[in-house]
Design a protein that fits this description.
Length: 673
């Protein structure tokens, strides 16, 4: 087929980048970017057109962003600590460079064109730049704007340090073998031995989560949970508190009451009050479900401890993951057995095939691509929107943990989509690229890596099948879109995980390749999707509410009649009230919560906000006569949601695809409200 012959130009990355190379590239990126801005600024107003102002700015930004990935990606994935540190420093330098785009009034005047057609992509792009000028303080005087930029730089540098501390953290928790009773032999075999008959367990999800879910010893689960809750506590608590102070000062300088108001303004919710009200309604609607879920788990706990003469009156933070697993086993969902049907390579291969089929795409592996580690795979992506297969982007998979590597799950952009505006290449489109950075256990020659199906009940995200399916939704969004759009697209695509046909295709017993999940297990998985939804969603609502609360004003905080609270005390109060479980004393889990310092500040509510609208989008597929793998509807979804990007606002895209007003009802019905 034709698409196999032209893989386009994939971004090039190698492992041999050095500190000096990063510094040289950073300086060169700055020089070329600032030259492009100077050309725009040097235009006489009579000469200004869209092409040589906003169009040229978009091209300069795209080129600089593409080149920036070469110096910022190593901070997430490189093996050398000094290279990672240089990369993180370069990220802060380049962030400052991009921020300075919107500081000069002359540039604002050049870009501020009034004669663009309403609703056009050109006008929307220009309006986006004008809004960026405003959000960077274009209305302030030169001195005040310079002070504002200094505060923003400081907040960004501290946020980078916060994340770097987590990436570099190598703390381990020692356990005697007897403490880990209940954990599988395969899991124990993968741990680092501490001494004869003992193990070291890291705080990374592939090791930490199985202990909290499987260890029958409450003391062991408590030990693991408390260690995670203290991760980077002393260093990162102080950093977070200072970042919160700086963000608030910046927001008030720009005329906002709080950083939450500043951060939410350009989003669908538009104001934090809307996001808070959305969450508060759900909190109250879910309180009965939370109480029932806690009672179920407490009964299970009591049934375990009573024979030993113990008496338990409360559910603790270290109990929820363990007894959630036990409860689901009573529903026919035995994660340990189900895991045997999800060998990672099969899940990866079938996930790509499902997305190809649903969205009318093709993925081509590029074994000769230059990558930064032997574990990394590169792919080209093609669509047939013009009647023949055309390249539309690239993606990389970096799925396994390494020392110093980013220890969470994310999709990191490597190249934005943009169109050349210069005379020599005008109209040429540059295709987007991104990478999934994951932490999935690696297969060995003796045994394939097996993936758990779902970890939604656990407070710390891990890397199960559901997570990979979600993150790959971000990939297709990136490579199909002209710009970016919310969490809705990947959240919507998660729903396919609960289709019996999809589960059959994704599953394959690691020892019996011809065997997929039995029908009764598939039925148990789909029927248990909403099991313990009160516990799960109240935890998510607590995190979203806390995120908005700490960004809604300066310390001290108040909550439920208690005043003079610092960020740690507020976390404990809100967790007990909303999530219904007390936070262990002496811990502050927000100190190891990446989202607060990686661009989700005052935005974590967006996960549930997006899930609600994603359920409405999926209802169109669910009700389709052709079933959820309706490729015609999938193509329409690709064209009207994934590909539109910033060409249309989020609510407009939803209305366009649904051909009606969006509704929360499909989500509420799914969770039993």
């Amino acid at each position: 087929m034709a698409f196999l012959e032209d893989a386009g130009t994939a971004p090039v990355f190698t492992s041999d980048i050095t500190v000096q190379t990063i510094e040289n590239l950073t300086a060169d990126i700055q020089a070329h970017y600032l030259q492009a801005l100077d050309r725009i600024e040097g235009l006489e107003l009579a000469e200004c057109t869209f092409g040589n102002t906003a169009g040229a700015l978009a091209e300069a930004h795209g080129v600089a962003a593409e080149r920036s990935a070469s110096v910022t990606l190593p901070g997430f994935v490189h093996a050398d600590k000094d290279v990672r540190a240089a990369s993180n420093s370069a990220k802060d330098v380049l962030k400052k460079m991009f921020d300075t785009t919107f500081l000069r009034q002359r540039r604002l005047a050049a870009v501020n064109l009034r004669d663009l057609p309403d609703g056009s992509e050109e006008r929307r792009l220009t309006e986006g730049y004008l809004a960026a000028f405003e959000r960077m303080g274009s209305a302030l005087g030169t001195e005040a704007q310079g002070h504002l930029l200094g505060l923003m730089e400081r907040a960004e540098a501290l946020s980078t340090k916060f994340c770097q501390n987590l990436n570099e953290d190598d703390m381990v928790v020692p356990f005697e073998a007897a403490e880990l009773a209940g954990c599988t032999a395969e899991f124990l075999a993968g741990l680092s031995p501490a001494s004869e008959g003992s193990y070291n367990v890291s705080l990374k999800a592939p090791e930490m989560v199985p202990v909290t879910q499987m260890a029958s010893s409450e003391a062991a689960r408590k030990k693991m949970t408390e260690a995670k809750g203290r991760q980077c506590l002393e260093a990162n608590r102080a950093l977070l508190e200072e970042v919160l102070r700086l963000r608030h000062e910046c927001a008030t300088m720009l005329g906002h009451e709080s950083h939450a108001e500043y951060a939410v303004a350009p989003k669908m919710a538009a104001h934090p009050d809307t996001a808070v009200s959305f969450q508060r309604r759900l909190v109250e609607q879910l309180r009965p479900a939370l109480a029932a879920d806690k009672a179920r788990l407490l009964d299970l706990k009591q049934s375990e401890v009573a024979p030993a003469g113990g008496e338990q009156t409360s559910l603790q933070a270290w109990d929820t993951a363990y007894y959630t697993r036990v409860h689901k086993e009573t529903l026919g969902v035995d994660e340990t057995e189900i895991q045997k049907y999800f060998p990672m390579e099969h899940v990866k291969r079938e996930t790509l095939r499902l997305y190809e089929e649903l969205l009318c795409l093709r993925f081509q592996r590029l074994p000769e691509a230059q990558v930064w580690h032997n574990d990394v795979e590169a792919y080209a992506v093609y669509d047939d929107s013009d009647g023949e297969w055309q390249l539309c982007g690239h993606f990389f998979l970096d799925l396994h943990p390494r020392a110093g590597k980013y220890s969470h799950q994310c999709v990191y952009p490597l190249r934005p989509a943009y169109v050349h505006a210069s005379e020599e290449a005008r109209g040429d489109r540059v295709h987007p690229a991104c990478v999934i950075i994951g932490n999935m256990t690696k297969s060995t020659s003796e045994r394939p890596a097996l993936m758990r199906f779902r970890e939604a009940s656990h407070p710390m995200p891990t890397a199960p099948v559901e997570t990979f399916f979600h993150e790959f939704g971000h990939v297709v969004h990136c490579v199909c879109a002209k710009q970016d759009f919310l969490e809705v697209p990947s959240m919507m695509l998660e729903n396919w995980m609960y289709s019996p046909d999809v589960l059959r295709r994704l599953s394959q017993h690691f020892e019996r390749p011809d065997e997929s999940l039995p029908a009764d297990v598939i039925r148990s998985i789909t029927e248990s999707r909403s099991a313990l939804c009160g516990l799960h969603y109240q935890r998510q609502l607590f995190l979203g509410m806390y995120d908005l609360a700490i960004h809604s004003g300066p310390v001290p905080y108040s909550y439920n009649g208690k005043h003079e609270l610092d960020a740690t005390q507020l976390y404990h109060e809100m967790m007990a009230d909303i999530a219904g479980v007390k936070c262990p004393e002496g811990t502050f889990p927000a100190a190891s919560w990446y989202h607060l310092c990686m661009g989700y500040d005052a935005g974590y509510y967006g996960y549930l906000w997006s899930e609600v609208y994603a359920a409405d989008l999926f209802s169109e597929f669910h009700q389709s006569e052709a079933g959820c793998m309706n490729s015609a509807l999938g193509r329409r979804y690709r064209d009207m949601i994934l590909s539109r990007g910033a060409a249309e606002d989020g609510m407009g895209m939803l209305r366009g695809f649904l051909q009606r007003e969006p509704s929360q009802q499909p989500f509420l019905e799914r969770v039993g409200i």
